Amino acid sequence: MANERTFLAWIRTSIGIMAFGFVVERFALFMKQLTFFLGKAEAAPHLQTGHGYSLIFGILLVGIGALIAVLAFIRFKRIKKEIEMETYSPSSGLDFLITLSVVGTGIFLIGFLIRSL
Questions:
Q1: Cα 50–chain centre separation
Q2: Are 61 and 21 in contact (CB under 8 A)?
Q3: What is the pLDDT at residue 50?
């Protein structure tokens, strides 16, 4: 049962990362529409040229979330087999991937916020 709970936790994490990627991608569109609505489009020309980094980063986050879901399923099946054969040994590959993606997201957001000052 613990294996299933862990699998579901990884799935929730992947859904969260994909949702965050979608929000990041749509944020540029929101900002573009907001500046147009407020009549300040000439004050923010960088928002008129497209999505920029948010599109790339949003797609990357959605891809990472989908990859984590696939890897979580593979890990779930492998651990289930190891438990049945009584040969289970912990592995930290998926843990490393999620840590790397969260740290990468944090670094990107820090850079984005510093750049927008």
A1: 21
A2: yes
A3: 52
CB 49 within 8 A of CB 32: no
Mean pLDDT, consecutive 10-residue segments, the chain of 117 residues? 88 91 80 72 52 78 90 90 85 79 82 73
Distance (Å, rounded) from C-alpha 114 to C-alpha 106? 12
DSSP for residue 48: S
With 0-12 CB in 10 A as exposed, 13-18 as middle and 19+ as buried, what is 58? Answer: buried
Show Cβ contacts of residue 76 under 8 Å, excluding neighbours closer than 6 positions. Answer: 3, 4, 6, 7, 10
Whether this prediction's pTM lies above 0.70 is answered by no
